[in-house]
Structure formats: structure tokens, C-alpha cells
Specification:
Order of helices and strands: HEEEEEEEEEEEH
Structural class: alpha+beta
Strand content: over 45%
Distance between the termini: 18 Å
Radius of gyration: 27 Å
Mean pLDDT: 81
Number of helices: 2
Number of domains: 1
Helix content: 10-25%
């Protein structure tokens, strides 16, 4: 009977310690990414990364993961300084269940480059700056005290007149700051294991 109690206590203790150690990481499951603009000056839209949905990655605390969300396009062939609009990206997470809204502002650019060092060539393009770039990410709290952040890389695209408006990749940096704490059942299991193990040690000392 004593051996059974010892084995049970040690087993519960090991299982609970394993669960507790695993709480230092979290498994993210990605959902859908989308982009909307408030005007038609640039008409930016996102061609979503088809491999993004349902993709899974695990992060330890204070570790980051860079995610390719897709390519941002505009069908406008020529842009200028007056082409400005507000944009809104939505990044979905199946785990944790959360849709993060990221706001930004886009604008057309126009400049000159020098071909061969002396022939002026016009260049046009566009820029997209986020309210929460990688260096100033948005923080998201989720179940059991978990905390992660997400920031988007700012985009700057420039091309010659003949190249049109082109496209540019959109990347997100995700960092896990605090993993969820163990669930109550795990804590109870740990407590039972410790109590059983402590009882065995006590009986063993008394038997000496």
C-alpha cells in the first residue's frame, strides 16, 4: 500500500512538474489576414499568404517569430504626393482566439533617380507606415495571464515609370512575453503529488 502511495505521488509530481515546465511556451495557430483602405487614392489590397491559415508555431517566453502575411498591391500605375489613405489590417489568431486590428497610413511618393549618373529618370512609389511597427508593437492579453505583442514592418516601394506601381511584402513580428499560467487542475495535481510524497517521507522517518 505504501509503495502504491509512493508511486502515485511521484507520478503525479512528475506529471505536474512537466505541465508546469511546458507553461513557459505557447502554441500559436494563425488565422486569416486581410487589409482594407478608407479611400481609393492608392487602392491598396492584400494578396494573403495561402500557407498562413492554420499554420502552427510554438514560442517560448521572450522569443519572437517573423510571419509573412502576404503581398500588398495597388493597381494604380502612377502615384503622387496627394495619394494618401488610411489602411487597416486584421491579423487573425485561432489560438489564442483573437483578431488583432492594426492601423496605418499610406501615401504616394515621387522622386528622380539618375541613370548612368547623368540621365534623370522619374521614380514613383508608395509608403505604408503602421501605428504599431515592429519597434513599437501592440500588446495583447489572453487567457490565464498570457501576453504577446505584434508589430508590422513599415513598407516603402519605389519603381520606375515603366514598372508601374508594383507590390511589396507584408511581415509581422510576434513575440511571446508571458506564457499562460498552469490551469487549476494542474496546480491541484501538483499539490496532491507533493502531499503524497511528503507523507511517504514522514512515515519513512517515523519507521526508523
Amino acid at each position: 500500500m505504501k509503495k502504491l502511495a509512493l508511486v502515485s505521488g511521484v507520478f503525479l509530481l512528475c506529471v505536474s512538474l512537466a505541465c508546469s515546465a511546458g507553461a513557459a511556451s505557447f502554441e500559436f495557430v494563425m488565422g486569416k489576414a486581410s487589409l482594407e483602405s478608407s479611400g481609393n487614392n492608392l487602392g491598396l489590397y492584400l494578396e494573403e499568404n495561402k500557407d498562413l491559415r492554420n499554420s502552427v508555431f510554438e514560442l517560448e517566453e521572450n522569443r519572437s517569430q517573423t510571419i509573412f502575411l502576404g503581398n500588398i498591391h495597388t493597381d494604380k500605375r502612377w502615384t503622387g504626393f496627394t495619394d494618401t489613405e488610411n489602411v487597416e489590417a486584421v491579423i487573425g489568431f485561432l489560438a489564442p482566439g483573437h483578431d488583432q486590428v492594426m492601423e496605418g497610413q499610406s501615401g504616394g511618393t515621387w522622386t528622380w533617380s539618375w541613370y548612368g549618373g547623368f540621365i534623370p529618370v522619374p521614380e514613383q512609389g508608395w509608403e505604408l507606415s503602421w501605428a504599431n511597427p515592429v519597434e513599437n508593437p501592440a500588446y495583447v492579453s489572453f487567457a490565464q495571464g498570457g501576453l504577446f505583442s505584434i508589430g508590422l514592418e513599415n513598407i516603402s516601394f519605389a519603381g520606375s515609370f515603366s514598372s508601374g506601381s508594383g507590390s511589396a511584402p507584408l511581415w509581422a513580428a510576434i513575440t511571446l512575453h508571458t506564457a499562460p499560467v498552469p490551469e487549476p487542475a494542474t496546480m491541484i495535481m501538483m499539490g496532491v503529488g507533493l502531499i503524497g510524497f511528503a507523507g511517504f517521507l514522514r512515515r519513512r522517518r517515523q519507521g526508523r
